[in-house]
Amino acid sequence: MATRPGQHAATTDTKPRAESGDAIRRRSHRLRWVVLVAALLVAVLIALAARSAVSVRQDLLRARSALEQGRSQLLAGDVDAAAASFARARDRFAAAERGANGLVLRSLGWLPILGRNPDAVVGIAAAGTQATEAVTLLARTIAALPGGLAGLAPSRGQVPLDRVASLGSALQTADDLTAQALQTIVGAPDSLLVGVGSARAEAENRLRELHDAVHTAARIVSRLPSFLGATTPRHYFFGAESPAELRGTGGLMGAYSILTIDRGRFEFSPFRPIESLRIPDLADVAPPNRDYADNYDPFRGGRRFWTAINLMPDFPSVARALLNAYEAVRNERLDGVITADPFALQTLLEATGPARVPGYGVVISARNVVSFTTNRAYSLFSSPSARKRILGDVATTVFDRFVSAAAPSYRSLRSLERSAAAGHIQIYSSDAQMEDGLRASPIGGALDPGTGDFLAAVVNSAAGSKVDFYQERTVSDSVRLLADGTSRSTVTVELANGAPTTGQPRYVIGPYRPTAADGRVGPLVRNLAPGDSVALLNVYGAPGSVPLGSPELDGAPARATERSDLGVPYVQSYFPIHSGRTATFDTAWGRSEGWQGNDSGGTYHLSFQNQTTIRPTRLHVEITPPPGMSIVSATAGVRVVDGRAVYDGLAPHRLDIQIAFEPPLYLRLWRDALRFFRQPIIRF
User: What is the mean pLDDT of the chain?
Assistant: First the structure.
């Protein structure tokens, strides 16, 4: 196309002109100023946020301190003071929540990564507010009862059912509040946190424990009036257990009574030897579950049917077996099962003082009741029936004295709670809702592996004597956590037999000579000397664990079998322990899901479930964290020694150990950031 005069021809060259050096320098200068101003603004924002964070942290610390003070006051029976402390804790949590939601801290939400920290703090504070509302409600409800906590204790032979019902209603509301608190903290950020990660994890653990406790208590207490015969009399099989001859649930159940509870009043029938019950045909008694039938029915042949009924360490299973067998021989369906051992009587006697046992001419006290009922009484009474009834008759005397106090006592209530928490009183109820609560508490006696790692060493005596009175026990567990999330545990159980060979009646130190009426017995029982013990030992691991290698007894290969109870695996061995000797049994477990977490850190949880013994079990646990990680927190009572978590002491009824571990901070933040930015923005 022609161009007009004076008009330049169009060009197709669109290449931009080169920017001059001065322009580049000016742009770079402006960019540096923008970056500098932004950095200064961020620095000022962080400085202001730090001041606000200090105030929020102080509020959270004051709230925790008030909670702990309230808990101590509640345990001491000062309910009014506890309610005031819980109210202060609620106010401090609310103040912390307001501070964390303030403009300064909330402005950190504009920044990558750092914005997750105020969200976590808000979650901690909000959950704390909800939880303290729950405990404040409970404290105020108890304070309103006549006599406070003491008003819940039995007196003049009766439990105050109306007060129990009032507490049950408050527990239901508290259950809902703690559930909301737990949901709040679970929804708070738990990764890419700087400085508040451990506080958030601790808050979730504490709230989970609180909710579990309140939920369990609500289920039990709401059904307790019915259990205590509020509308119709209830009848329970009451068994007296003696750990001088060990059984899975604690000790041999030598005598029994039928306990009737009518409108909160207790009445025991005369105790009788459990062997006085007719022995049914096994085929006529439905087992509580398949594992009970497969693993323990073979031991219940002949006249050992009743004395071997509680070999399984799961009390609900044993209780159902008892109820089924009792119905088969007496054509009567009972409402549940209650057992108590001499340590329960010892605790109750601490509250009531000494008592004289009618018909025996003896005075029992907290100081002598255990040794008397599990050892000395067997030397004093030549009558077999008297020897079997003595523990039951002592139990009747102690319980009657306990519930017949002239006035309700907080000390009595605490003694009952301590016995139940230590597993010395066990209860099974045919009421499904109450039984759900009982199973989740120590008083239910369930074989409970929890959700983490698990360990239990359970002995059933096969010697037919009472030499377990002299047994000393040590359980050791060495755990290694590996980088791939697996774990390896080496367990050692030492059983020391300190029984005498002379100076005690044959009924106590043996040897027991089986007869044809005993049915099938192991060959070890036929060749015992005085003082010898025979242990049927089960060593339990967590569900999903697998035995590693071959078990050893005293350093040599042991004869052992692998079984499971209700999904909980165990290794079983059967061996004698001669008087004055110690047997050492070693086994190992491997677990594919050994700990929870990732390469930025994690947690490990171990539950140890103890068996009641005359002499307390010594427990030693060592936990080595994954390579490259260090322990940052551990359960109270657990020390960190040379990089390992160590517990060494007397074992409680149940011990739950939890440790947390992390790599160095820079490495953890780097791994968290990589993991965060690798997450897809849009999922198809």
Answer: 86
- Domain count for the chain, please give it: 3
CA–CA gap between residue 239 and residue 259 (Å, rounded): 10
Tokens of 450: 């929890």
Q: Does one domain contain both 211 and 268? A: no
Let me know whether 632 and 513 are in one domain: yes
Buried b (16+ CB within 10 A) or exposed e, 598-610: ebbbbebbbbbbb
**Residue-wise pLDDT tens digits, 250-278:** 999 999 999 999 999 999 999 999 999 99
Q: 539 and 650: one domain? A: yes
Domain annotation covers residue 679: no
CA distance 202 to 197: 9
Element (H, E) at 6: none
Dist CA 127 CA 368 (whole Å): 48
Max Cα distance, the chain (Å): 141
Q: Is 378 in contact with 466 (CB distance < 8 Å)?
A: yes
Domain interval for residue 100: 44-227
Tokens of 177: 């509040």
Q: How far apart are CA 67 and CA 158, in angstroms?
A: 33
166 by DSSP, 3-state: which? helix
**Do residue 649 and residue 605 come from a single domain?**
yes
Q: Give the torsion through C-alpha atoms of 225, 230, 233, 237, to 10 deg.
A: 10
Name residues whose C-beta falls within 8 Å of residue 214's C-beta, 6 or more positions apart in sequence: 134, 138, 171, 174, 175, 178
Please give the torsion angle defined by the CA atoms of residues 428, 429, 433 and 439, in that order, rounded to the nearest 10 degrees.
0
What CATH number corresponds to the domain at position 283? 3.40.630
Confidence of residue 387 (pLDDT cuts 50, 70, 90): confident
- Indicate if 481 and 381 belong to the same structural domain: no
- Amino acid 676 reads F
Instruction: Characterize the bridge pairing of strands 453-461 and 601-609.
Output: parallel
Q: Which of 148, 150, 214, 145 is nearest to 178 (CA)?
A: 214
Is the same domain home to 262 and 206?
Answer: no
Q: What are the residues facing 429 on neighbouring strands? A: 336
Q: What one-character DSSP code corresponds to residue 158?
A: B
Query: Which ranges of 301-383 would DSSP assign to H, the alpha helix?
Result: 315-330, 342-352, 369-371, 377-380
What are the structure tokens assigned to 282, written together?
Answer: 């096994």
Residue 562 in 3-state DSSP? strand
State the pLDDT at residue 55.
66
